[in-house]
From TrEMBL:
Similarity comment: Belongs to the CAND family.
PANTHER family: TIP120 (PTHR12696)
Protein name: TATA-binding protein interacting (TIP20) domain-containing protein
Lineage: Eukaryota, Fungi, Fungi incertae sedis, Mucoromycota, Mucoromycotina
Organism: Umbelopsis vinacea
Residues covered by the TATA-binding protein interacting (TIP20) domain: 1140-1312
Key words, A-Z: Coiled coil, Repeat, Ubl conjugation pathway
Superkingdom of this protein's organism: Eukaryota
Amino acid sequence: MPELASPVTGAYAFADVVAFRPSGVANIQRSTMSTTSAYMVASLLEKMSNSDTDFRYMALNDLTNELQKENFSLEDSTEQKVLRAVLKLLEDKNGEVQNLAVKCLGPLVRRIKEAQVLEVIDQLSNFAAQQKNDELRGIASIGLKTVIVEITPNRASNVCKRIIPRLLQQLENSGGSYEVYMDSLDTLSELLSRFGTLIPSEQQLQIQKVLLPLLSHSRPAVRKRATVTIGHLVAHISEQQFESLVEFLLEKFNQNQDSSDRLRTLVQTTGVLSRYSASRLGAHIPQFLPIIITHASSEDADDELREICFQSLESFVIRCPTEITPFVDQISGLALTYLKYDPNYAADEDESEDEEMKDDEDDEDEEEDDEIEDYSDDDDDVSWKVRRSASKVLAALIETRHDMLSQLYQTVAPALISRFKEREESVRVDILQTFIVLLRQTSFYGGDNVGIPKEKDIFDFDISSERIDVFSARAASANPNIAMMETEEGPKQLLRTLVPSLSKALARQLGSKSTQTRQTGFLLLKELVTVLRGGLDDYFEPLVPAIKSSLTATVSPDSHHIGTNSNLKIETLSFLRNYFRTHSAESVHPYLDRLCPAVIQAVSDKFYKIVSEAFLVCIELVGVLRPVQSDPTSASGYKLSPVKAEFQQYIDEIYNITTRVLSTSDADQEVKERAIMCLGVLLSHAGDQLQDQKAALQMLLDRLRNEITRLISVRTLTIVARSPVVDEEELQNAALTSVDQVAVLLRKSNRVLRVASLYCLETLTRRFGQSFSQQSVQTILAELKPLISDADLHLLPLALSNAVVILETNPQSVESIKAEILPAVFQLVQSPLIQGSALTSLLKLFAAIGKASPSDYDSLIQRLINPVLTVNMQGVAAGGVAAVSNKHASSTISQCVAVLATNTDEQNREKTINEFENFVKNPSTNDSVKYLSLLTLGEIGRKADLSSRPDIYNTVLDLFGAQSEEVKSAAAFALGNISIGNVAQYIPRIVAEITEQPKKKYLLLHALKEIITRYTHQEGGAGLASESEKIWLLLFENCESEGEEGTRNVVAECLGKLTLTDPYKFLPDLKNRLNSPSAHIRGTVVTAIKYTFIDQAQHYDELLNPIIVEFLSLIKDEDLNVRRLSLSTLNSAAHNKPYLIRNVLNTLLPLLYQETMVKNELIHLVEMGPFKHKVDDGLEIRKSAFECMYTLLETCLDKVDVYAFLDRVRAGLEDQHEIKVLAHLMIIRLAHVAPTAVDQNANRTLWHPEIDDMIGPLKATIDFKVKGNAVKQEVEKNQELVRSALRAVAALSKLADTSPSARFVQFENEIKNGPYAEEYNNIWNDNDIKESRGDLMDLS
């Protein structure tokens, strides 16, 4: 081939030259690149017309690659030549060249001008319209769709104008071929799905007029393709046009009553309408539904028509859930009837069911053979499709009607169980899947899981978790909370009554030859025991043979069933793991002699996934063989059960196979980790039964040195160190050997590893710390030192707790702690970030140091307060805004000083109190020192009686007149807490002061709030109880005045917390004041109730439960502020005590939704000089309402109508900034809970109509541009709102199924190709990482 050898004319030779040119020539100018591109294109054009097929093909291939490069450009002179050359190759005789030419059109249309694009459209349309060359017509149709996909929206309008008339002309041609119709409809569908919004209404009407007659076409495939095209069209047409379409369909239904073929098309079209325009079709459900139900139930209908009817009903149920409500019972009854529709089965259904209940299990196989013989051998039988579509309708009902769960268990569940014997495998699997959907809905919406913690494994090996619940109770069925919350008619209780028939029916299917049926059956059983947290205690026996055969089944190495057999084993093991976890050891023991050998054999399987799952089963199995449970009443803290003699061999076998796996170097990482977990459980539960504990512990320590298995080994060592059955001496030796290694791990960058190491060190130190060498203690303290900072507030409390444990177990280490830890601690107390668990651990450390080294008391106090005493206050006026430096640090220091003072002798304590009292009395003391002194006196006074100091009360009270607001606040805090030390003496004085000194009322009320908040019956209860009535009346007197809202808020908090001291006395009075004519009193009362919810105690819930709705009904109060306060109270109830409001939400939710609406009467204009500013007085109340809605998603989703809820979320997307952010958060939350709660079937989603309705406001938010003169805060605020909207779009995108909404796909593509593409991709990647991390880390 001379052309290839030519360096001048050969394109390929030129490419070689470019590839091997010197690096110095690589940086050429733009003009040179342009020349190079033109030269290359000219060469390629020459080869595209070559007679050699290979040349044409390679030239096209090179052109396609060049067009996809960013720096490639076409000159005007060559653009037309390239275009014509590519179009000419569409007619090439070689099929591969033709296909490549079509592929080349995609990148080409992105490079050429719009005029050339239209020329391409014309040429392709001509090719597609001709009927002489079918191959060219097919290629041209593919080319048209390729071009449409690549066209940008700014060119789409002209393209639509050019191509749509030609497509409609082809569709109107009565003499057109079948293939032309199909290709034209395909192309039109693509256009409508991408650019339907750009097509003018006149042209939409024309399209509809052309498409509707095609619903009566003689060819079924054309009719079906026309329905799809109509679906893409209706998403964009006007209401009037949609109404005319509905009228057309209804008229055709009347005209084609006897034509099954036409009826199928019409029913299918209504289903398509529900998919693409559910909100509009919903209004016509009462018209369409009776027609479809009539045809589905007609005796004259064929099975294909029935199947399509059920498919449309399924779509209606999913996409029009509100409108379908009146017909739910009718649809359910029809689906149940046809679930057992099998005209080719000779036996009577009812008789066979009765006989089946009486048959002995020994005759099962014989019955199945007889049963099969009763079927007609009809190859054309499609009745199974009707049964399958009926089961899908039931699944849709279960998914969308969680409010009917109890009814579904009475009607649908028994019918599903009776159909487990279905003869057609695909239908049988669908029926089992439908029951699984019912179980998952029960798990999510059953109503008894609110407030009950999720059950954990015997050992929580979840790497992402931190605390390890080591010896928790096994059987969840024994949980008294569950029994208390399950009602007799509740879904879970109804499910329990079905377990006998369910297990019997399922046992037959688990013994069948169908691998898919057995696998789905075990999945169903796993869901069952998960939902009921047990339930198979008395019904497990029939399942044992099937479990054993599934685990021991073998297939030949060359069999295609290897994959399905492995999946069956994994599913069986997964069920067993959940079974062992949720049932008591006593109920499991009778079956272990048959189950243990099969499980242990699975650990030796060749497939690592099976081995990994088998190890998880062994972890649960060891807990069954030797239960060890926490028991606070026992002397040892644990309840140990002896190992039965017959179970010893299984413990030995599990241990042997575990050590064998750990000894091999080629085991999979996941298998290694779970083997280590299993070894830990063996040591923790049955260490005293192992022959060589030392070897087992040494094996664990060896894995601790391996970087790959280090993390799981640290967690396992933590568990083993808390075991009561491991040999004390061997465990101590292992602890002393490993403690230095674990301490060094605190240097690692892996944060999860550091957290695990801190827990491990704390456990080892708490048990064996007294035996640690001084060198080991020094090593631990040296590694803890860098963690004593506020850089990581999660590691900080753990590091401080380790220091406390070291001090408790090694009092002689106090000097080392003072040298290594205390300098960092004194720096730490200055941090404004110390709170919560970090502060608690810090106070424990000071308490431990105070006890271990009493002689350092004065030094510790001085080092704590010196930073405040020496703070530079020069230039700051008394009472100025900067008069008090670092208030948070002062609060931390005061609590540390109080801890030291209360853990020392009386002499030291008195000296400290005198010092701070003198600071307060001294008028020259700066406000920072006074602030610290008052807080300290309050903290000490709360724990010690200071009433022996006669001046302290008046000294503090006098500072209510200080200039500094911070000092005033600290004085109120101090007065309240000092009074706690002697309630009987101080309460009357404070009550009197509130009445006598109105100027100090606000601060005195704060002091009273401190007393009531800290008050308990053990601390001076008699004094407060005697004054409670007087305090109650006094508080209401102070909320009736037209005072500041701040005073009323303090009064409300006092009233709420005072109510908790005697709810039987004060709750009825609060209820009586709900009808007060004063809006201030009504608002105070409803706020007071909010503060009662904060207390987690339940002793007064029986009083609050019947009257809670009366308090919360103030949401409809005439006063705007009362409504806002009521919403805040509802939010608190939903967050803290959701069980109180669950049964009254049907009353409260309509009131709540009402407050999310924008009310124009609350919007007014305010003139500010030459400017007018719009003020919305309803914004705060709407914000409170949306916050409450978000909380309800977290706690009461099962009581919320998701569709009504979504209506308000959509409205929130068009509201103001703060509410838009809340709406975005709710979308993200719904996207996470919806798959769990609703979307149980693969490739199906509930959200298409709702997603489409959200596109507009989300797009408006993302596209919004701030003004050029906007200040920095406005720009940042808009950027955060855009990021919030992008997160919502990403969450919605994850809900899309295999054929997502065309509008949403277009919207998402615009984002991916727009200015926020990078940010959107980062959000996607961040979400994926979080999700994958959760999956990968969950090793339990």
